Amino acid sequence: MSLIVQKYGGTSMGSIERIRNVAQRVAKWHDAGHQVVVVPSAMSGETNRLLSMAKEITPKPNSREQDMLAATGEQASSALLAMTLLSMGVPAVSYAGWQVPVRTDSSHTKARITSIDDTRVRADLDAGRVVVITGFQGIDDLGNITTLGRGGSDTSAVAMAAAFGAEECLIFTDVDGVYTTDPRVVPEARRMKVISFEEMLELASLGSKILQIRSVEFAGKYQVPVRVLSSLTDPSIPLDEERNSGTLITFEEDQNMEAAVVSGIAFSRDEAKFTLRAVPDTPGVAYAILGPIAAANIDVDMILQNLSAQGTTDFSFTVNRNDADRTEQLLKEQIGPAVGAGEIISDSKVAKVSIVGIGMRSHAGVASSMFQALSEEGINIQMISTSEIKTSVIIDDKYMELAVRTLHRAFELDQDRD
Ligand code: ADP
Ligand code: ASP
Ligand code: MG
């Protein structure tokens, strides 16, 4: 008997029929003698529906109230699941995050989990109940409900698996694992049976929506075995088969992985690029530009500084598109005038495409193969950033899908390696 945390995403919880499927799957694990904690997302579309109602009221809703609202999506789906389990004769109870409690800091809409109390949950598990706990939310020290950012149920599940000492955290979703890239964009993408923790961390941080980045960070910090697998299969699939399906995030590097130079491709449209033209090139100019951005709690991603004519420099950087308005305001009202910038250009029509692979460490020339493949398609690269195991480029967003398909082919990711 072991303790298993199972997370079900929005599509998996998307209708009463799907919730029945989830309940049957959970019942199978419970009947086999496992202790099961289930972390559901809101039914698909529900979080968007709630947030768009808030936006109808005001373009910038109060963030505490926004969390009060958004957290209800998971409360509804959790209660529906517990009800379904009970109606099938499976002992079950649901809790909202604040009842556990899942404690977080006070950064509304992007809170971080600080601790999870296991007392209540353990008592229920020991009494033979399935425990359903809302994903995506917690409570801060002042008693306010907080949410963890979009896709945050992944993080709730992995954090709970760590806190309860679960044997495994199963992330059930609408694809049957982690693919070489999003199979919706490249139908030839292949599922990986295992992916290294480092590669998963890079893919998630570079915009791959399959797992929220913080869930991968938690998995690494507490060495939680995480498996991504499909919730859309027949729920009566034998347990052993299910346990070996999908993609396991592994903390060991095996031979097979080293063979793949590039393992996956991530992409993101959540980017905005800013350029300050003709800034007088004096020591401290980078700090003068980026200091106030950092002070406003805005993360800067890529940075590019070019020398141009007459001792001036063109300075470009990217931020998340959600921070674009605040960044533009800071640049126009404060930073631009302070550094004597000639012109401030903002561009939200950019995308980031990245190749990721731990094999890149030991192979030279991978980045230039990437640039060559893009140039053969006439795709202009606006910015580049590299690390040991990834290369990212900023391009015009209208070429994003072409770039992903091109690179997938160029690095032969569609070829079977097993
Ligand atoms: P959930 O609602 O279960 O959390 P998400 O929509 O957040 O599901 O994540 C699953 C989706 O992630 C898939 O439907 C797929 O389109 C997308 N995705 C992006 N990159 C990948 C990848 N490398 N492998 C598999 N799926 C990916
Ligand atoms: N319901 C939340 C969202 O749509 C959290 C999640 O699904 O993981 O972002
Ligand atoms: Mg998700």
From TrEMBL:
Species of provenance: Candidatus Paenalcaligenes intestinipullorum
Reaction catalysis annotation: L-aspartate + ATP = 4-phospho-L-aspartate + ADP
The EC number(s) this enzyme carries: 2.7.2.4
Residues engaged in binding ATP: K7, Y8, G9, G10, T173, D174, Y179, R184
GO BP: homoserine biosynthetic process; lysine biosynthetic process via diaminopimelate
Single GO MF annotation: aspartate kinase activity
Protein name per UniProt: Aspartokinase
Matches recorded under Gene3D superfamilies: Acetylglutamate kinase-like (3.40.1160.10), VC0802-like (3.30.2130.10)
UniProt binding sites for substrate: T47, E74
